[in-house]
Amino acid sequence: MKGADSVLIFVVEDEQALRNDIVEELQEAGYHVLAAADGQQALDLLADSTPDLLLCDITMPGLDGYELLNILRQQRPELAATPFVFLTALSEPREVIDGKLSGADDYLIKPVDYDLMLATIEAHLRQVKRICRRHDDEMTTLRGAISGLSGGGAEHALDLISLGIVLLDEQGKQVHINRAAQEMAADADFIHVSTKGVWAVDPLSNRALQHAIAETLDSARAGVEKVAGVMLQHAHETSGTSILACAIPRADPPSSSHPCVALFLSASGRLKRVPEALLMELFGLTPTEAKVAGALASSARATDVAAELGVSQTTISFHMRNLFQKTGTNRQADLIALILAGPMMCRVPDE
Q1: Which InterPro entries does the record associate with it (predicted)?
Q2: Helix (H) or strand (E) segment spanning residue 247
Q3: pTM recorded for the entire structure
């Protein structure tokens, strides 16, 4: 976790005296602080900054705290895992419920207890650290599983995996394609795979796929980890295929036989529903979050999940924000790919 002197806390509070007191307390604790007097000023300042945590008043003139939170969740997906703590003089249960449904992570009641405020901030920053570490460990495990396969005959083990897996060398050419990926490519309605590389049939999907491959190849050459998620559309269907592109950094210069990028393909409808109990254990999800995650991984559309579970899209959006936070992702494509990639590294037995 960052040291306090490198953590940026963003404070949004219209009462100047209280805002100044909060800023002073945070600075004395060693935090960097940005402060805004209202929601619009906060948006202007946030356009050029990425805070580690936000403290925000609910009742403000113009753009209130709920509206600010909603805008940030929609327009700044990279802040999905950034804790958002409301400052409020309202302690009615309805206010707390509304805030939670809006995606708030916690509440501090006015008048502010500054010891409690600092303890709350420290607790949420520790939680973010745990989430990031778990996500990094999961991705490292996935990359490590295939980083040394080439040339040793171990590629055959990939045929036992239900995910489609394509390994690319430093030029983006295919090193290995497992059986599941071959079966997907044989349909030829959404993806082509050859010794020269991988292409999507849909032009827009292909543009996104090639961008993701180029990004992860650059990262692998630089010895840096990188993950990019892409959703490919089928030519004649509304369903899609999620692809997770993972850079495989190497300490030594890569050769033509060494994989630099792994593509994990998960076609909608081709895999069994991910067991909810497994999702709960892997990602620390609640039963409801696991149900939503499993449904998302199967249908890929939030509207379909809402209809399947008999809840509103607002409820699904609320759970998706929690899923982004707990899995360390910030886009639906990345979320779905990670959900499928983690637990589906082995086939689910037929019932």
Answers
A1: CheY-like_superfamily, Sig_transdc_resp-reg_C-effctor, Sig_transdc_resp-reg_receiver, Tscrpt_reg_LuxR_C, WalR-like, WH-like_DNA-bd_sf
A2: strand 240-247
A3: 0.45
Q: φ and ψ at 135, to 5 degrees?
A: -60, -45
Q: How far apart are CA 101 and CA 315, in angstroms?
A: 7
DSSP state of 267: E
Strands 84-88 and 32-36: what pairing? unpaired
Measured CA to CA, the distance from residue 323 to residue 289 in angstroms comes to 7
Q: Which domains does the chain have, with CATH numbers?
A: 4-135 (3.40.50.2300), 148-267 (3.30.450.20), 276-345 (1.10.10.10)
Asked if residues 145 and 124 have their Cβ atoms less than 8 Å apart, the reply is no
What is 61-120 written as a DSSP string? SSS-HHHHHHHHHHH-GGGTTS-EEEEES---HHHHHHHHHHT--EEEESSP-HHHHHHH
pLDDT tens per residue, range 129-183: 776 666 566 556 555 555 555 444 555 666 666 678 888 988 889 888 888 888 8
Do you find a cis peptide bond into 249, omega within 30 degrees of 0? no
What is the sign of the dihedral through the CA atoms of 59, 65, 67 and 68?
A: positive
